[in-house]
Amino acid sequence: MIINKEKCLKCGGCVSVCPVQALKLESELKCDNDKCIKCKACINFCPVGALKLEVSK
Amino acid sequence: MIIKDEYDVVVVGAGPAGSSTALAIARSGLDVLIVDRNQELGCPKRCGEGFGDYALNQIGLKRNEKWVDQYINGALLYAPNGKKIVMDYGKDVGYIIDRKKFDKWLALEACKAGAQIQTKTIVDGIIKESDFVKGIHAKFLSEHFDIRAKVVVAADGAESTIAKKAGMKIPSSPNFFDSGFQYEMAGIDLEDKKKLEFYFGQKIAPGGYIWIFPKGEDRANVGIGISAENSRTAKAYLDKFIKTNRKFEKGSIIEVNGGAIPLGGVMHDMVMNGLLVVGDAAHQINPLHGGGLAESIIAGKIAGTVISDAIAKNDVSRRGLSNYNRIWWKERGNKLKNLEKAKTLFEKLSDRQLNTLANELDKKKIEEITSGNLSKLMKLISKLAIVGIKEKLGF
To answer: What is the H or E stretch that residue A43 is in?
Structure first.
C-alpha cells in the first residue's frame, strides 16, 4: 500500500475498515505490507484518495 | 508524569463518549483516568457539530454559551431536482457547537468531578491476565509505562484499536462505515444563518447527503457522507458541489476534516472481562443522520453507571458488566436498529423517488407527518427522514 502523505488527513477512516489491522495511525499513517491482503477496503473508503496499491512490475 | 500506575478505571479516548463515561464514574467516587492520543482535546474535529439540549440534560449538565456557535430554528432540504422543503420550527430547536471548546469543556467537567486526564498518550497494548483485561501498556511522548485498572473503557473512536487489541469482535465491514469529508468554510453566502441545509441525490451524495451547518456569520461546516462503495471519493463529490454552487464563490476553506462514520452495525455484545466499548467505537451512531454526539454522551452515562456498580459489587467480569448491553439496548439500541432499517431503505431511493418524495412534502404535509398520521410506505419513509432531521436538531 502506498500512502500519499501530502493528501492524508490522518482521519483514521482506513484503519476502521481494514479487516486485518494492517494500518496503524499514530503520528502518521503506516501500513504493514506483510499483513495487507490488498482488499482495497481502505482505498475505496479514503475520503481524499490518499491510498494506492503498489503496481508490481 | 503526574499520573499513578493504578486506577479503578482507565478510559481510552477523551471524546464525548469517554468523558461522559469518566464523569459518571468519577461522580460515584471512583478513581478514573482518561488518556487521549492527541496532544489537544477536541482536535482534529471529525464532526458536523449539530447538537441539542437532550443528551446533556441526561447527564445533569447544562448548555454553555462558550461552545455554542449558532442557534438553529429549522432546516432546508433540497431534493435532487433542486426542490426546496423549508422546515421552520419558529423557535430555536438546536445549535451548532464548537467541538474543540465542547470536548475540552466536557473533559474538564469529568476532571471537576474527580477524574484525571493525560493527553498525547498512545495505548500500544492491553494487559490481559487469565482472560481478564487488567490495564494498558502506553506511552506518553516517548516514555513507556503500564497502568493497571479494574476496568478499561474503549472510547477510542471509529478505529477502536483498543477493543480489537483486547480480542473483541468489532464490525469492520466497509458496509458499516460511511466515508465522511468536510470543510469548515468562511465567506459563504448562507441562505438562512439559522437553518441547516441538506442536499440529497445519487449524483450529489450517493447513499448519503451533503450538509451545510451554519457556525455564525458567514461560517459553516460544509460536509458530505457517502457510502464507501463509490468509485469516486467523498472529496470529489463535495468539491463538485461547491464548485457548482454560487454561495461558495467567495468562500475560504479554514479547516479540512475527514473520517469514518460508523453507520450501522450496532453491537449486541459490547463487554468482555474487564473491558467495555462505548461511542463511535461501539458504532453508537444514529444510522439515519449520522449524528453520534448525543448517542455517545448517553451511552457514556449508562456505561459509567454500570461500571461503578460492577466495581462496587466486586464483579467486573463480562457478567458483571453485561448490564450495559441490556440497558443500552433497551434505551437506545432497539431504536437505532430500527433506524438502520430505515436508512437501508432511504439510501436505495433513486433520484426520481427522492423528487417524488419532496413533492409530497409541502409544509402542511410535513406538519401532518411530524404529528404522526401516516399509513403508506412512502409516507413512512418521509416520516423517518423527518425524524432523523428532528433528532439532529436535538428534539
So the answer is: helix A41-45
The DSSP letter of residue A53 is P
Question: Domain check: are B259 and B269 in the same one?
Answer: no
Instruction: Tell whether B335 and B360 lie within a shared domain.
Output: no
Supply the pLDDT for residue B385. 59
If asked whether residues B379 and B286 sit together in one domain, one would say no
pLDDT in tens, chain B (395 residues): 899 999 999 999 999 999 999 999 999 999 999 999 999 999 888 899 999 999 999 999 999 999 999 999 988 989 899 988 888 888 998 999 999 999 999 999 999 999 999 999 999 999 999 999 999 999 999 899 999 999 999 999 988 889 999 999 888 788 888 999 999 999 999 999 999 999 999 999 998 999 999 999 999 999 999 988 788 999 999 999 999 999 999 999 999 999 999 988 899 999 999 999 999 999 999 887 888 999 999 999 999 999 999 999 999 999 999 999 999 999 999 988 888 877 777 777 788 877 877 776 655 555 544 433 333 444 445 554 554 554 444 43
Q: What is the CATH number of the domain that holds B205?
A: 3.30.9.10
Note whether A56 contacts B: Cβ–Cβ < 8 A.
no
Please tell me what DSSP assigns to residue B330: I
Domain count for chain A, please give it: 1
Yes or no, beta carbons of B235 and A41 under 8 Å apart: no
Flag whether A31 is in a domain.
yes
Q: What is the dihedral angle through the alpha carbons of B150, B156, B157, B160, rounded to the nearest 10 degrees?
A: -80
User: d(Cα B351, Cα B324) in Å, to the nearest integer?
Assistant: 41
Number of compact structural domains in chain B: 2
- What range does the domain containing B225 cover? 70-95+175-263+343-392
Is B266 part of the contact surface with chain A (CB cutoff 8 Å)? no
B157 to A12: CB separation less than 8 angstroms, yes or no: yes
Q: B55 lies in a domain? A: no
Bridge partner residues of A24 (DSSP):
A30
Best A6, A9, A16, A27 residue to mutate vs chain B (most B CBs within 10 Å): A16
Domain CATH number, residue A30: 3.30.70.20
* Pick from B246, B177, B187: nearest CA to B215: B187
CB atoms within 10 A of CB B34: 31
What is the domain range of residue A46? 2-52
Mutate to test the interface with A, among B233, B256, B261 (most CBs of A within 10 A): B233
Query: Is the domain of B225 the same as that of B272?
Result: no
